[in-house]
Amino acid sequence: MGKGDFARAHHVAFFDAMATELPDDYATQEVNHLTLGYFAVGGFSLLRELDRVNTEEITKWVLSFQVHPEAHGDEYNGLFFGFCGSRSTQFPLPDVKDPCHNGSHLASTYSALAILKILGYDLASIDSKALLLSMKKLQRPDGRQASFCSFMPTHIGAETDLRFVYCAAAICSMLDDWAGMDKLKAKEYILSCQSYDGGFGMVPGSESHGGGTFCAVAALHLMGFVQVDLASNLQDSASIDMHMLLEWCLQRQVTDGGFQGRRNKPSDTCYAFWVGGVLKIIGAYHLIDHCALREFLLTCQSPYGGFTKFPHNWIPDIYHSYYGLAALSLLEEEGVEPLCVELGILSSAL
């Protein structure tokens, strides 16, 4: 692997290994099996190697995680009927009396639908009515104002932040049905998360963060509230401070060519996608230094294949490997498929 070369064959071998058997270090991530599956399948798709996976087998595996309501359920009993993240979240623990155990999670549901879309499965076959109507019950007032509604990731309650607003928007978009959320209330919550410096924090009043900023802008775009043409200085009705957002994003590319997720942090492979994706959505990706970013990403390639979090490390992980490829897709790297940025899946899968 020469300096400045995209090691495509090494990356194919890495994702081949990840799709076969995850290393022991991933044992603690058992509850996120669907998300890890999304990274593996997504990596193959970006590398144009989907023929290496058994599409029918993976489709059956993904569908086996969907939770369906009982036929006699009245308004779904307040439960969320999405996808569980793994077998351990799908079934009740021993000695726990729970006749209607349901570990559905918004992130797992997003991952499931994304995998199915990538594999070419017709999502019209999904029980989307139960999924969307029960998902809408996860949208709750923020607590500060009733018009600001975030999303809980599960019906049993958990943290609420922009990650789950994004998941809900992506789910509705992939299913082509917005019955699962109140878009206007979600928009108000997102806008309340924009910080004084133009970026978005995960929750109102928190520090601007690359991941939160992507979730905010991508969700608004999916909901139809962000349609920006910077060249003609047009701004949508979402009331984002677009110029401050642009400045914050451009400032995240640092001297080594990579992107940091927050101020005063080192550059990190994944933020080349999270922050780069925001710039792509708002039509400002041409303003970054493409050559410097590509050089940074190639220094994050592991000699074993895959990508590391920081440059010149040896041990890759599947998360940074997927987002390293996704970032190269934004750069239109030869041998990497084009990506639908706002959904995180191949453009050809739409």
UniProtKB/TrEMBL annotation:
EC number: 2.5.1.59
N-terminal signal peptide: none
UniProt keyword terms in alphabetical order: Magnesium, Metal-binding, Prenyltransferase, Repeat, Transferase, Zinc
InterPro entries documented for this protein: GGTase_I_beta, PGGT1B-like, Prenyltrans, Terpenoid_cyclase/PrenylTrfase
Cofactor(s) the protein requires to work: Mg(2+); Zn(2+)
Annotated ranges, domain Prenyltransferase alpha-alpha toroid: 6-340
A GO MF term: metal ion binding
Family: Belongs to the protein prenyltransferase subunit beta family.
Name this protein carries in UniProt: Geranylgeranyl transferase type-1 subunit beta
